[in-house]
Amino acid sequence: MTRTARPRRFLMCRPTHFEVSYAINPWMDPAKPVDTDLAVVQWERLHDLYVELGHRVDLIDPLPGLPDMVYAANGATVVDGKVLGARFRNAERAAEGPAYLEWFRARGFTAHDPLHVNEGEGDLLLTGRHLLAGRGFRSESAGHAEAQEFLGRPVIGLDLVDPRFYHLDTALGVLDADQIVYYPGAFSAGSRAVLRRLFPDAVRVEEEDAEAFGLNLMSDGLNVVLPEAATGVAARLRERGFRPVGMDLSELLKGGGSVKCCTLEIREAV
């Protein structure tokens, strides 16, 4: 199978102020030491890889007191040049939404400040036909409806049931317009049935690869950047004609995020 890489535009945030000083997901442990300098080095390798692969990477300045701002994917959802801002469930991250909205507005994007909780591309993932929307731990159904109205894309709500996979992008990755990879155990029975109907040829992976954050990936249609520990996911992707590229983001995983969490895609108007 022949696959083609398509250049993308990303927004990223250097983890200058990264630390784990609170716990708002099962992966965070404030008692566990964090090496901020190593987190920066690992992040820079991801940034440089994107550039080497031919993608454009813009940067937003990190703000003191917002250690999770490095997880840029949560900052907004951008479709056809329209920016749906994020509204966070947890107070510790609340200031990130306005910071990302300000960045986009300063660059002329049409932006919407949401009324309801949605945590950006953490829970809103665009495929060729739908906007897949996670709920159950962070984003809420009212936020899904708001996304559909503003972005003009049909939204498919998916119920997450395992707290380890609290955002959709920890349980499911979009590989191409009509191809996804996911861990079935992260979803309710009804949501698994929906995914089977929408994506009968989807790649399904095992729990150990999901625990390695192997679904928190970024694909350009050919190259799939993912945590290097997720060897099972990488093997399955090779079988489908993709080119997996493993990265070590072990320090950033201590905050509950990996490749996709660090990467917000800017989909400009066409």
TrEMBL record:
Protein origin, superkingdom: Bacteria
GO molecular function: dimethylargininase activity
The keyword Cell membrane belongs to this UniProt entry's keyword annotation: no
E.C. number(s) listed in UniProt: 3.5.3.18
Pfam families: DDAH_eukar
Broad enzyme group: hydrolase
Keyword terms: Hydrolase
The protein's name in its UniProt record: Dimethylargininase
Originating species: Streptomyces roseoviridis
Recorded name of the encoding gene: ddaH
